[in-house]
Design brief:
8-stranded antiparallel barrel, alpha+beta, about 240 residues
Length: about 240
């Protein structure tokens, strides 16, 4: 479990969006990039499901539209407008303490202006009561209120990412915004986490945490209707 008192500086950078990230290597040249239409209107449900179909298998996310509506709606808007199609899991952060696997994987738009939607308001765990436990999905960000299209999935409990109203600095007081959890496909999350890392890729705290071969998300689709629990693929 993450210790706030031992690692305040590291906690502040754990799931930060990469600064000025270069487009992933698999992306086509700018002239070939698709132009994304505005996201469709979405009637948010109290519980939402999104299926991430990756090169290594499906990951099914259950999102808390009741307690974290802003963050959940943002994720759905990216999925519904297909802005997550073709992005990659590019990072696996292995924490050198606790019981393995201890850390997270990260994916997202990596600052690609063609995919980005406006930043969203921050929903701290102190307001939502959605916490950073194993399997949780959480938004990457710089300062609170800057999250866009990058997110992390946790392999272990990381309570140090929760809001801490007693912290000395504002960043730790706000924490990160968890908004759901994996309900199917943690074995896929683990395969991504265990993939080889490039020892020289990445800047600052991210150096050595970048996947040597990023794992592509082929599609991200909202599941319409009640989640059956054992379905293997999203609705068309």
């Amino acid at each position: 479990m993450l210790k706030r008192i031992a690692l305040p500086a590291l906690v502040a950078l754990l799931i930060t969006t990469p600064l000025a990230a270069a487009p992933p290597r698999h992306m086509p040249a700018p002239a070939q990039q698709p132009k994304y239409a505005p996201p469709p209107a979405i009637q948010l449900q109290e519980t939402e499901h999104v299926v991430l179909t990756t090169e290594l298998g499906d990951i099914v996310l259950e999102l808390d539209g009741k307690r974290a509506p802003i963050t959940t709606l943002n994720f759905l808007r990216y999925a519904q407008s297909k802005r997550f199609d073709g992005i990659v899991f590019y990072r696996a952060m292995h924490l050198p303490w606790g019981t393995p696997p201890n850390g997270l994987i990260q994916a997202g738009t990596q600052g690609d202006p063609r995919r980005l939607l406006p930043p969203i308001a921050h929903e701290p765990t102190s307001a939502t009561d959605v916490h950073h436990k194993a399997g949780a999905i959480s938004m990457a960000r710089y300062a609170p209120g800057t999250a866009t299209g990058d997110f992390s999935i946790l392999l272990s409990d990381m309570d140090g990412l929760d809001a801490n109203p007693k912290a000395e600095n504002e960043d730790d007081r706000q924490g990160y915004a968890a908004f759901g959890h994996v309900v199917k496909g943690m074995e896929v999350v683990r395969r991504i986490f265990d993939a080889p890392l490039d020892p020289v890729k990445g800047d600052g705290v991210m150096k050595g945490q970048m996947l040597a071969a990023p794992v592509k998300i082929l599609t991200a689709r909202r599941w319409v209707g009640p989640w059956p629990g054992d379905a293997a693929a999203p609705a068309p």
